[in-house]
Amino acid sequence: MSAIVSSSGRPTFSKASPLLRGKIALEEHSMTDHFDATKTLPDSENTSEHAFNDEAYMSDVVKRLADVESRVKDMDASGIDISCVSLTMPGIEGIFDAPTAVSMARKVNDQLHKTYRTGPHAHRFRVWGCVPMQDPEAAAAEAERCIKQLGCCGILINGHSNIGGPNTIQYLDEPQCEPFWAKIHELDVPVYLHPRLPAPDQQRAFRGYDFLLGSAYAFGRETAEHALRLMVSGLFDRYPNCKVILGHCGEGLPFTIHRVDHRLRHSQPGKSGPHKHPLAHYLNTNFWATCSGVQREGTLLDTIREMGEERVLFSVDYPYEDMQELSAWFDGLQLSENTRKRVGFLNARALLKLD
Amino acid sequence: MSAIVSSSGRPTFSKASPLLRGKIALEEHSMTDHFDATKTLPDSENTSEHAFNDEAYMSDVVKRLADVESRVKDMDASGIDISCVSLTMPGIEGIFDAPTAVSMARKVNDQLHKTYRTGPHAHRFRVWGCVPMQDPEAAAAEAERCIKQLGCCGILINGHSNIGGPNTIQYLDEPQCEPFWAKIHELDVPVYLHPRLPAPDQQRAFRGYDFLLGSAYAFGRETAEHALRLMVSGLFDRYPNCKVILGHCGEGLPFTIHRVDHRLRHSQPGKSGPHKHPLAHYLNTNFWATCSGVQREGTLLDTIREMGEERVLFSVDYPYEDMQELSAWFDGLQLSENTRKRVGFLNARALLKLD
Amino acid sequence: MSAIVSSSGRPTFSKASPLLRGKIALEEHSMTDHFDATKTLPDSENTSEHAFNDEAYMSDVVKRLADVESRVKDMDASGIDISCVSLTMPGIEGIFDAPTAVSMARKVNDQLHKTYRTGPHAHRFRVWGCVPMQDPEAAAAEAERCIKQLGCCGILINGHSNIGGPNTIQYLDEPQCEPFWAKIHELDVPVYLHPRLPAPDQQRAFRGYDFLLGSAYAFGRETAEHALRLMVSGLFDRYPNCKVILGHCGEGLPFTIHRVDHRLRHSQPGKSGPHKHPLAHYLNTNFWATCSGVQREGTLLDTIREMGEERVLFSVDYPYEDMQELSAWFDGLQLSENTRKRVGFLNARALLKLD
Amino acid sequence: MSAIVSSSGRPTFSKASPLLRGKIALEEHSMTDHFDATKTLPDSENTSEHAFNDEAYMSDVVKRLADVESRVKDMDASGIDISCVSLTMPGIEGIFDAPTAVSMARKVNDQLHKTYRTGPHAHRFRVWGCVPMQDPEAAAAEAERCIKQLGCCGILINGHSNIGGPNTIQYLDEPQCEPFWAKIHELDVPVYLHPRLPAPDQQRAFRGYDFLLGSAYAFGRETAEHALRLMVSGLFDRYPNCKVILGHCGEGLPFTIHRVDHRLRHSQPGKSGPHKHPLAHYLNTNFWATCSGVQREGTLLDTIREMGEERVLFSVDYPYEDMQELSAWFDGLQLSENTRKRVGFLNARALLKLD
């Protein structure tokens, strides 16, 4: 509490929202010298941010993606103790051929490690490894290297992977991905399922309003559908310890998943897929949600209501979002300080085994 | 309050949830002799309900779509005073050629009127008119006939319309639809934007798990995107009195729309479409949401939080949903009786001008 | 939305909370020349604010109680269109003898009318009449004069009335008050039941911690108990149109009243008082609640949940609270703009018949 | 999920609320042969339950207070694994002279231990020790014996203690109670602060409506005020590990405490007591709340919002409340299964060190 003077000249004693220190942010993006994920891939949606967004905003984003010092400065000003960084989308997943994906993933992981986990700021960062899902066996091997040799906190995947072209894609529940999940289960680390735009030929609903693609609705839709595929595929029945993190308050699923379950009651016996439980069970057992890029209290509270306080995590989505803006929002929410600390950092410390 | 005896033999005095009488349901479906909307259209998604759903469930649904007496009986048992009925999806919108759509819409409207608005139960029903959007001028004319001659409570549209084939579709914001909206604005009646599945070539995310299409996620996604198109198109700036009703707690938009607005802050100047306001403004000004097919309290409460108590309306989605099951859920929610009455019927009475 | 520059030097595009214009505040306090309600009564609790509170704060409060110009300036800066002012507590209710109360009430009403309802700012104010409940017949007559001759928006009563001394008090449900309620029912105006501290001999739980009395818990407890007395007395069964406004989010009743009803199930038949309905029924039918002096979102949302959006009203509790601080909090709450307008002014306009 | 047939003859597939097994209930009451806490004390409020409540209800309550077998049967039918039992109110606290209190507490603890912690049902119960606060040194010694020798899960205190008569009472923050708290701090066990009615001379607001005393409002008011005394006394600054459990969703404090803090901003410097933090800090740090006797979702959710998911605990208040009624309500709440398990038993297991 601090004394301030209101604009009407009256001294008031306003309870200024104090900064919550110690926060951990999980969906924080980076770029490497070897691989500019936003520019190099032909014919992919990876240029969407540039296509729709304001130039000044995007040039600031690009600059910040690679600048460690300004990132640390923003973290200091925002009460963020640790940022978990990843290669920005579409990342390795947007590469069309497998051998390139395999070698690029290795290079990127090495450079992210060098940039963020060595030097004076090493204690302020963790790194999400990237993997070449175009070759699932290689992805499993690279995941193992990331965790065991580079000390990554988990693996981040930008949605579906391109296999040969922009419209030929692979989802993570497809059978050939099994070796990857078996390894993840063994390594016992979380996978962050980061959004990616629907394949170009699946974007018709936005035609004429391409800017809507950049508005995040399309990202969220594609990611929610990807998560539903994981659930109904039986993946979490085969690997019950698999842990998946969704951004953006669970990409809408906390609001909609119960209706999905409600309708699946009526599906033909034996035809609603190999999953063994209602889908909300998996959301409550195998999923975590960050509030990256969301500054709406009702959305956050509904996510907490549907997933429980221990499965919701603070995040920013830097540098697409502003650390201080999102932190000020989060730190100022009128809820229990216990909940704020749990979502702000305690849950992340437990999930990422940071202590 | 009534005395009951618990299974342990102890007399208890349980507060049984009383039936809320006078409810009005807005998303209630019907079939006509002339037009079996679920069966006749080749190569369309209109068979989805049959494809994925349990046979016993679907045969019961089909029987109930056309049976007025069992409908009234269910309404009596559920405290539903008035059902607003419509031709079930995909309805007229699924017809590929315009002349057929024009003549069929007319026949269907006449028969719905005869079935529900004449005879002993006429006071228990209202009818949503259907229109042939494949010919927007004809749609405008039919809308006028529905409202002025048949006394319809508004127009219900099952999402996009097929123009010539299953994958050649028209959204309601496209320029050729202007005459329809001009007429709706003049008639001052609501349009119920009912879900429809994405066009077949836009369903790839569900491939391998076709039952997910019937689970309502795909319906909701397509309808939310349709509603977003209406908002960004500037339709509600041109016709500020246009009123659109969404089912299923606003098809996810109350949870996600603020993030869409949040990202649109960064779109290139002049490139985020002709709309004049943040999208949440339209959701709060031009939209209403029913809780059709939703039995999840958190979802309903978040909808009320984002749209206000006066824009949320009870509904069932009969016969796809069970009137008594959904009514028992709604009548038993622990919220203010004032809110229950407002959502249960007062808002509908005002919106549909039933008094 | 406006562009700002964050302290880290990055341009951001923050959604600044716009001022909600047109707000109406209902629990706003004043002082008159004839009657300094906070100082003159011997041996009463009316000095409590002075006893516990910071001197600088209290001297500012006293100055503002009587200063119309600074009040209007604060209203302008806060988006408050109309303040409904009343004589500050304990007001007429703290006078020990009836004749003094009768004549003082008349003088105060005349002066409040002259100060706030004549002159250049008349359109910015409404006045709550005060009445001498020490003589209920006179109170009824003065209420009629207030409404019919002075154009008051209703009557405000500061809890129990002293009858002869500090510990001999009268609650509004006592039989001798009947003429007052009969007149209120006839006049069809709301009564604002403003808090007052428990009588001195009922304050034992705070002994040793007298500052807790000024912390508002004791005010709220006494007022909630007064409201419960009104409910169980059958007053609202006899006068179903009587409308009572509580401040401070209903003084805790939205949170606790259902447990009271729950326990009353077990009271001896015929011994739970003359009331005909569960107490929550009256809270939903005869009561309104303002958020005066409350800056806690969970408290406001629970009040809305239990009373419905149409029975909750914005207020400040000026000058004990800061108009701009409370307005900034209210205007920045992340809820539907429809709800904000309804609570901010639409409900007040309807209840006070301001249109 | 199970198939049911609705009363309209249609088969439906309702999601029946499954019983949550493993629940732990913390505010469960008992009687002993040596000491009928509800009958023996002259001139005390301990007969209140009998005075206001239905005879059939009270005779059932009295029978159940002492019957272990029917208690276990109810627990089995309700999914309650463990009940933490205590001597029912006013208990030892209602005894006027200290020596009687000291010897009675010892006898009661021995008998509760024998009844509930030996024999075939021992694993289904835990016992709250009672202590003679009329002699705080003896209370400390008895607390130590309870925990170390009898294996009690903590100490339960029924509000203030009578010292010599019905209106001469002692609150737990008074200086002479220090030895008790020092011992509690050393033993590191929680204290359940159970409600008790205000002393007879503090019940004036209910005069004429004595049944309101039994309605729980008065119990809650007195207990909230007692908890506020503990907070402002600085007790938790001196003994930061002291843990206090409140029943009935925190006795209203989650709804009102922020307004208390808000007003204490204005108290005279150095005069707002020896406490070092805002009161909400203690509510979030030293307090837990059970939902005993509360069957209102909004009240529970506001408690979770203000205290965090980990400080809210299931309870019944048996036999004053019905185990199956309250369990069915709790098990059917539409919130995350994770939250339900945490509130249902995980929090209790951690707080009471049951694993």
Automatic annotation (TrEMBL), chains A, B, C, D:
GO terms for biological process: secondary metabolic process. The keyword Lyase applies. The keyword Disulfide bond does not apply. GO terms for molecular function: carboxy-lyase activity; hydrolase activity. InterPro entries: ACMSD, Amidohydro-rel, Metal_Hydrolase. Pfam families: Amidohydro_2. SUPFAM superfamilies: Metallo-dependent hydrolases. It comes from the Eukaryota. Residues 66-354 form the Amidohydrolase-related domain. Keywords: Decarboxylase, Lyase. GO terms for cellular component: cytosol. Belongs to the metallo-dependent hydrolases superfamily. This is Amidohydrolase-related domain-containing protein.
